[in-house]
Amino acid sequence: MHNGAPVVSPPASARPYSERVLLPVNVTLGIVLAVLLIAAVAVAALARLGHTRAIAVAGLRAAAQLAAVSYLIGWVVHALPRLLGFLLVMFAVAARTAGRRITRNRSWWWAALPIAVGVVPVVGLLLLTGLVPPRGLTLIPVTGILIGGALTATVLAGRRALDELETRRGEFEAGLALGLLDRDARMEVARPAASDALLPGLDQTRTVGLVTLPGAFVGMLLGGASPVQAGAVQLFVLVALLAVQATACAVVLELVARGRLHRVPLTPAEGE
């Protein structure tokens, strides 16, 4: 009470930005991040998990890349050619990352196809319906989330499918002996394993709001949106991701079954 009048707190959107953010950018944040990264490296080393150096490098790369991207986005959003170029760079990096995770030979570039087939139609639909305006600050994060989801599904499906074909080579050859086409014999072996790539997205969608509050939801709340608005955006992201990941998984499975994406050529033609 002040002079008999109740004191009313200003709404979240009216408070200074520094009071609304979850993680203020300051020295304390840097120290905590360093401690967490060192802890991750130490645990991996003590448990002999085999990725000690990779964890350290990944953390340092993430810091450098996010710092660069944070400044770069402010530059690209004001011109359509720069915006499109930035989105193409995101796609190219995702395609190469996925391809090199799946295989080390020249067939890795096929990994670009499932990512493109999964992401482009969904982004096009969102732009045509007006759900996502053609502005950089909206288009970049939405497209980035979808490309990231397609990347994860492509890597998991491709690796699991090729691992299964290597492990169960005898079953593939038995299928050929029974008269199955190469594509069908590979599909019988690889499909069950590749479909596991959908499980992370399914689990996240099933448990949203019960186990975790994903980033889009939290970000909207911190930006001053209502819980209903934040929930709608998060639902849109999750359902769009399911569509993108299912498509990417189906395409990469087809590429593996047709021998386009491989580790060891199954026929001389596939090594060309």
TrEMBL record:
* InterPro entries in UniProt: UPF0014_fam
Q: What is this protein's record name?
A: ABC transporter permease
Keywords assigned by UniProt, alphabetized? Membrane, Transmembrane, Transmembrane helix
Which topology term describes how it sits in the membrane?
A: Multi-pass membrane protein
Q: Name one GO cellular component term.
A: plasma membrane
Where mainly found? membrane
Determine if Transmembrane is one of this entry's keywords.
yes
Q: Which PANTHER family match?
A: PROTEIN ALUMINUM SENSITIVE 3, UPF0014 INNER MEMBRANE PROTEIN YBBM-RELATED
- UniProt keyword annotation of ATP-binding present: no
Q: Name one Pfam family in it.
A: UPF0014
TM region positions: 27-47, 79-96, 108-132, 138-158, 208-226, 232-253
Q: Which domain of life is it from?
A: Bacteria
- Similarity comment: family membership: Belongs to the UPF0014 family.
